[in-house]
Every structure is written in C-alpha cells, then in structure tokens.
Amino acid sequence: MNMDEHYATIVNSPVGYLGLQLDGQTLIGIEFLGRRLSSTQKTCLNKLSNASVERIQSSLNDYFLNPENARPPVTSLNGTEFQKKVWRVLAQIKSGKTRTYGDIAGEIKSSARAVGNACRRNPIPIFIPCHRVVSASGRGGFMGKTSGEAMDIKEWLLANEQSLATS
Fold first, then answer.
1. Whose CA is closest to 143, among 57, 70, 34?
2. SS3 of 75, please?
3. Would the pTM count as exceeding 0.70?
C-alpha cells in the first residue's frame, strides 16, 4: 500500500501540509508532511470534504489562530496504556507553557526516555501537544528528530502559542 493512501485528506497549515487519518468520522492521526507534497500526496490534497473533515479543519484553524480556545475534534487514540497515560498528561499542558520530560516522568513514576518515546508515538500532535514537552537543557526533540524541519515546526508552534498567550 502506498503510504499516502492512508490519509483521508491532506490540508495546508501554517506549519506545512498535514495528513489527516480518519476512522469513520473520528480523527485517529495527524502527520506533518512538510512544505512540499509528492505527486501522490497532491492527489490527497483536500480530496475529502465532509462534515467530519470540516470540523477537524475548523479545530485546526482555531488552534492556529488562538490555541487557548481551540477545541479538539472527536479523536480515538491507538496506543499502549502507558502511552495513553503520557498523552493524558500532555493534554493538560496549557497553551504557551512547557514541561520537561523529566518532570512528567516524575509525575507518572517513569523515565524521561519512556516519556519521550510516548511523545514520539503521539498519533495526534497539535491536539495532544507533545511539542510542549522540552528537555531540561533545551528544546529536546520532536517527531523523533532533534534538528531540521521537525524542530522548526516545534519552534513555530511554541513561539505562536507564547506570542498569543502574552497578547
């Protein structure tokens, strides 16, 4: 199966294209695809338009305009019990704020590395804000990377949230 075929649709955002994965009307995944699409990905761009996709797009637009007031769409999380535990903690981090991997690990009686691994496997970034988790000595990683476009996205998300929180 072509990897791009699992997107119900691809939408554009301030941080590049986002591949949306749905199970019926429920959001089960968001993938950052970058600023350029392959020819196969272009066939998925805005290919599905229904009430579910419109609600998800509206939630994303709300997030990018004012993260504090954004309401996540209906989601379903596929992960281990530990990952879901970490994701519940992430969902509580307020817009414009950050927490460290170690801080979260201490709260749930785990290790910072395990928290980082759960963040990396987060199926619904933005709505489960793994970008708000940083290392004790810097920004940490994002999407399993510590440099490049992934970190540019993390920096943009954090800067956007922090600028809106102070205005």
1. 34
2. strand
3. yes
